[in-house]
Amino acid sequence: MTVSGPRGRLLTTRRALLGMAGAAGSGLLRPARAETTPAWRRPLAEADAVIGFGHTGPITDGGWSMVHDRGVQAVRRAFPKIRTIYVESVPYSADATRIFRQFVAEGAQMVFATSEYGDFIKDVSDRAPDVAFMECDGTNVTGNLGWYYVAHWYASYIIGIAAGLMTRTGKIGFLGAFPIPSVYASANATLLGAQSVNPSVTLQSITINAWFDPQAATQAATALADNGCDFLCGIMDEPAYLRVAVQRGLKAAMWNTGMLDYGPEAYVSSVDLDFNDFYVSQVRDLLAGTWQPQGRFLTLGHGVDRDAWGPSVPVEVARQADAMRTRLLAGYNPFRGPIHDNHGRLRVPEGVTLSDLEIYHSDWAVAGVSGLE
Predict the structure, then answer these.
(1) Could you tell me which CATH number the domain at 2-150 has?
(2) pLDDT digits (tens, 9 = 90+) for 15-65
(3) For 226, which DSSP code?
(4) Dihedral (Cα; 173, 176, 178, 183), 10-degree rounding
(5) What is the C-alpha separation between 121 and 125, in angstroms, rounded?
(6) Where along the chain do its domains lie?
(7) Is CATH 3.40.50.2300 the right assignment for the domain spanning 153-272+306-370?
(8) Are residues 50 and 107 in contact, defined by beta-carbon separation less than 8 angstroms?
(9) Can you spell out the DSSP letters for 290-330?
(10) What is the pLDDT of residues 144-156, one digit of tens each?
(11) Closest Cα partner for 219 from 188, 253, 235, 243?
């Protein structure tokens, strides 16, 4: 665990934490009586506040966890008297439960899981009703647990337009970690954007069972290039497939943050995330005693957007893609029927528009997507 206080003091104790957490759990996580007002509903002095963050990867990954760590830094700047604690590379196992319990044992009044941990965090939040919990990419809302996520499908749609205009082979290659809703939403939005300007475009996906595995991502990107894909995109926490695009003379769009420096000649753009304002607002609400558990999306222009276009993107391509961005910012929703899945079934009838929540829970691929079932 890494701890920072008002003076930037750092303490690394992650291994010790995993051994201590089980013993610390039972007495500290007893549910409060139903009539007790939760602590997070009462104002809290900044100097007394402890905020915990559990990251799915290393904060030096250049992507997802790094972006969330920027949010932690923003909290420290906004509230210099607050103590923040965090653990990197939290596993998807019982160890996650121990880590979240240890945050409570350390006195955290608010805990963020910066990726989906499902029952691992819900079990802890159920037993610690005086602590506010938020889960990124989660689904649960309880008495003291909420979720947050980015409506990244709009930025993906914009980038998809650029892909549809720039591909020469008509084949987009997509890398994902697992066949889960966030990956379906990204792949579907990218292809639908591409097909809006180039109806014959298809998208081939490969999932590598990890968010951060540069070697596997490199192998998958190479396989996609070998299969004729000349535009690579996806949801990965590092820039491995951009390097493949540079080596093979392809184009690539990234995820999490701007990655121009890793391959400017191949770089098109990125789904660019910014959790800074969100984390600061959540902590501010906690201090004021006004925080409430709920689910919420960070929307286009407010936590998620496209990065600046790379130098090889033609002016006309950028203009056409940005015309759609302007429409999206004005409230237009392009995810409207008829939309068929990749088995030919009508999923969205004509005249029906998918809501953000429906896109968020997608578990099917649109027509033209292969390799994602």
Answers:
(1) 3.40.50.2300
(2) 333 333 333 333 344 444 445 889 999 999 999 999 999 999 899 988 899
(3) H
(4) -90
(5) 6
(6) 2-150, 153-272+306-370
(7) yes
(8) yes
(9) -----EEEEEETBEEEEPPPPTTS-HHHHHHHHHHHHHHHT
(10) 999 999 999 999 9
(11) 243
